Prior knowledge:
This protein is an alpha+beta fold.
Amino acid sequence: MPQCHRQRGFTLIELLIGMAVVAILTSIALPQYSEYVARQRRTDARTSLTMAMQWIERLRAENLGVYTGATLPASMAVSPSTGAPMYDIVLADVTAVTWRLEARPRPGGPMASDACEVMTLASDGQRTAAGQTSGAVFERCWGR
């Protein structure tokens, strides 16, 4: 009596359908994940700007109400403070009564082409992103 041996495994069409499903899911998930990572990096930069602002205000309190001569410690000069730096934190335009902090994306880094470009925080509380104080880009960079 002849026995019939049945092949076990997947057919080519089943494998192709499985690969197509994985490709579709990846094409949806990858951009979302990339935007999530960029948003987190912007949040780190905003946090670094706020910490630097507090540092400068403490210096002003110690220097009889003037900002002249204020500098940032090296530990505050990059964001994030641990891991691979994504932004340089720069203290610019320091006068006796004003200052401006900038979070500049590192050239060639993953945030170099971000729409936010340079995010700033000034002594009067004004915030900018890509030179704008309002609008969609500003909200994307400072809103979340």
